[in-house]
């Protein structure tokens, strides 16, 4: 009797525990369904935006190239039409002179004949028919404007979602394992996963082999956490020791604490604002004059500039500069800058951390940049160590920056068509920070971008980042 009660009690306890697990699992399912809807909508929205951008670029390129073909057609038609008009006039003049010469042959009087002959000779020497060129000034050939998009088509055929492959192994082979559950989440924290994080765990269930490829990921975080659970038909095992994979994304904002007082900084935008520096100086002067009293809120203008960070002085003098808020010490990274509004000049590049507050980009041996000048005439130049190299290429609307720290390569590209503008080859001896200068205008930054395949090339780790193998906890009931 007691033994049966004890057995029944164990069954009840097991059922109650199972009920609680099922309740938790149902909540997880409901949350997953809701998250799936939201995540799918976000991915579809991002996908549509990417394709819209691609379509827009293609249409712009088509319009540009179509315009080039039509301009060439117009030029040739004008050349040929002018030649046709001149040739028709020469033909008409020639026919008139020929008729006059034939009539002269019928003159009987010798003196009249000599006069007519002299007149004909004089007209022949200046006749358009003999001064007119018979060589076409333009040909009907247009094949030199034919395009070949076979390589681009091959690239588009390979277009796919960003893959991340995770592989793991069991410490001891277990034939009872039916499948695995892979959980992953984005994070901006290196090392072991935190109990609470700004991102939630996502689940890939019913994985039959010890390897799984995740697709459709957007690398808007610095790292990703992964953990595995092994399952048989009766129960689920414990989580494996988690691993952290670097996503290789370089997300950064502009550091308002470093910016010149004449620059207004907002995350990924910087704008020249000469009045702000004057206003802040006046406010500071009034504060000092008033014995340190607080300035009236109604007399000061709100600003996005944070107080200068300890250990980093604001840029001053003629160094209208702002730095990024993160440095690069390894890897390959890419970001883009686009000039906004009317500008007179701007620079984009990198600098060492010891870049001085009076230093100007490209004028020291601690900074590298390309400089766009739009004052009086537009020009583009590469600058380093106070040496300038003029770049004989059209000034683009946006500039892409590619930094391969380990190889000591810093390259600048036309952000639209990825045409190479200039490359610095060096050996970085300390971490570098993205750096920007703008005078009379504004810049918009796009960070956290993947290195375009046409620029960096797909290395093995870029084709599909593979996480370190995780050892799955073997305890399964």
What does this molecule look like?
With 477 residues, the protein is of the alpha+beta class. Helix content is 32%, strand content 27%. It has 7 helices and 21 strands. The protein has helices spanning 2-104, 110-125, 128-131, 150-157, 274-289, 453-456, 460-463; strands at 164-169, 179-187, 202-207, 211-214, 223-231, 236-239, 243-246, 263-266, 269-272, 321-323, 332-340, 345-352, 367-373, 379-384, 387-390, 398-404, 409-414, 420-425, 432-439, 442-449, 465-471. Strand 13 (367-373) and strand 14 form a beta hairpin. Helix 1 packs antiparallel against helix 2.
Summarize, please.
The C terminus is likely disordered. The protein is of the alpha+beta class.
**Major sheet summary line:** 7 strands, antiparallel
- How far the N terminus sits from the C terminus, by CA atoms, comes to 28 Å
Output the strand order for the largest sheet: 8-9-20-11-16-17-18
Mean pLDDT: 81
Helix content class: 25-40%
Shape: elongated
| Secondary structure: number of strands | 21
Report the structural category: alpha+beta
Uncertain runs are 279-311, 457-477
Order of helices and strands: HHHHEEEEEEEEEHEEEEEEEEEEEHHE
Tell me the fraction of residues in β-strands, as a range: 25-35%
Number of helices: 7
- Radius of gyration over alpha carbons? 37 Å
């Amino acid at each position: 009797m007691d033994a049966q009660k004890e057995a029944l009690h164990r069954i009840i306890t097991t059922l109650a525990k199972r009920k609680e697990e099922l309740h938790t699992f149902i909540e997880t399912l409901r949350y997953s369904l809701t998250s799936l809807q939201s995540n799918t909508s976000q991915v579809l929205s991002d996908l549509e935006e990417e394709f819209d951008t691609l379509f827009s670029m293609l249409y712009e390129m088509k319009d540009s190239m179509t315009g080039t073909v039509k301009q060439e057609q117009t030029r040739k038609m004008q050349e040929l039409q002018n030649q046709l008009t001149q040739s028709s006039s020469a033909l008409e003049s020639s026919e008139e002179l020929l008729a006059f010469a034939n009539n002269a042959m019928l003159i009987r009087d010798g003196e009249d004949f000599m006069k007519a002959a002299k007149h004909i000779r004089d007209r022949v020497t200046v006749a358009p028919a003999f001064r007119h060129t018979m060589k076409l000034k333009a040909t009907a050939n247009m094949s030199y404007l034919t395009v070949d998009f076979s390589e681009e088509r091959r690239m588009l055929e390979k277009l796919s979602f960003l893959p991340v492959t995770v592989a793991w192994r069991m410490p001891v082979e277990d034939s009872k394992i039916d499948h695995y559950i892979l959980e992953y989440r984005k994070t901006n924290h290196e090392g072991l996963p935190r109990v609470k994080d700004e991102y939630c765990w996502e689940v890939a269930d019913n994985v039959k082999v010890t390897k799984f490829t995740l697709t459709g990921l957007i690398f808007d975080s610095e790292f990703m956490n992964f953990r595995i659970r092994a399952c048989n038909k009766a129960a689920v095992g414990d989580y494996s020791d988690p691993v952290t994979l670097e996503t290789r994304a370089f997300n950064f904002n502009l550091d308002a604490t470093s910016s010149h007082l004449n620059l207004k900084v907002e995350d990924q935008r910087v704008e020249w604002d000469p009045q702000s520096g004057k206003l802040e100086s006046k406010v500071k002067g009034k504060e000092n004059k008033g014995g340190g009293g607080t300035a009236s809120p109604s007399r000061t203008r709100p600003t996005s500039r944070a107080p200068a960070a300890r250990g980093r002085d604001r840029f001053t003098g003629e160094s209208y500069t702002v730095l990024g808020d993160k440095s690069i010490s390894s890897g390959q990274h890419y970001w883009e800058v686009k000039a906004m509004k009317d500008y007179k000049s701007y620079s984009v590049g990198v600098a060492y951390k010891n870049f001085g507050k009076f230093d100007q980009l490209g004028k020291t041996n601690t900074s590298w940049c390309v400089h766009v000048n739009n004052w009086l005439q537009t020009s583009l130049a590469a600058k380093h160590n106070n040496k300038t190299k003029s770049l004989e290429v059209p000034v683009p609307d946006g500039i892409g920056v590619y930094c391969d720290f380990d190889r000591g390569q810093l390259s600048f590209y036309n952000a639209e068509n990825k045409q190479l503008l200039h490359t610095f080859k060096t050996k970085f001896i300390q971490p570098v920070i993205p750096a920007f200068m703008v005078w009379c205008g504004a810049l918009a930054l796009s960070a956290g971008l993947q290195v375009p395949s046409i620029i960096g090339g797909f290395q093995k780790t870029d084709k599909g980042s593979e996480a370190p193998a995780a050892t799955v906890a073997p305890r399964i009931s």
